[in-house]
Design brief:
Elements: H1 10-34, H2 38-68
Keywords: Membrane, Transmembrane, Transmembrane helix
Length: about 70
């Protein structure tokens, strides 16, 4: 039933959100820190955590809908 609501690529999108969030936190933040770009480092952290949280929330929502329906 849940397959009727969205396409099969939702889990790929979730993985991309989480992986890009980790990339922002690990790679981008380090590069901005080395370059002493404090504002960009802060934005990279916020966007990284936003991507991770968004991916987790959508994953939990998809699992909840799958269980309910």
């Amino acid at each position: 039933m849940i397959g009727e609501i969205y396409s099969g690529y939702l889990y790929v999108a979730i993985a991309i959100w989480i992986l890009t969030g980790l990339f922002n936190l690990v790679v981008d933040t380090r590069k901005y820190d080395e370059s002493q770009m404090d504002k960009e480092k802060k934005v990279s952290r916020v966007l990284g955590w936003t991507n991770i949280v968004l991916g987790i929330v959508i994953f939990v929502g998809a699992m909840t809908l799958k269980i309910i329906w």
